[in-house]
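Repro:
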Amino acid sequence: MGWLRILRIPPWRALRVPVVAVFCGTLLAGVAMGVAEAADRDLPPPGRPAPAGRVGAGSHDPGTVMPSGRGCQADPQLGVYHPRRLRVLRPCTLLSGTVVAVIHEPDGDVHVDVRPGRPFVYLLAPGNSQVGRAMVTEIIKGQRLPVPFAGEHVVMTGTWVYDIHHTWNEIHPIWMIRYSSGRTVLALPPVPPLH
């Protein structure tokens, strides 16, 4: 309490700041968890495909336009080249944010770097600072997903992974993208990979 006298802060005012900070921190954490839980509510259990009639389950037709659903697959690394370099954190994850960069890689993949909205920042790893605190998401060579443009707001689902070579988190592969136009496209990567 000595520092209160030096700064001439009444004790009742000094208590208000930590209480408000704790309340706001708890509230924000609860909102983020609520959004993540709401996003995951309709997921099939890990290792199971989506129920028939939803999100194209059982269909491997790339480019299918889906009005709803998340497109998650039983094999979270379907169509991934060298899957051992990626550690699966969650097989079906929702990400919402703004595209900050689109990079056409020499191997034919397209990196779509997405700055996550506040409730989705938890998906990032410290290594994502290498790409400006964006989430690296990957459209795999041969996957028929329209490439979003920089500045576009997107909602996507895919496998949340940790890339052990780059030390960042990614959505790899992407299963589904909802574009700012409102169009939602589900497109599975080719099996086997085209690399």
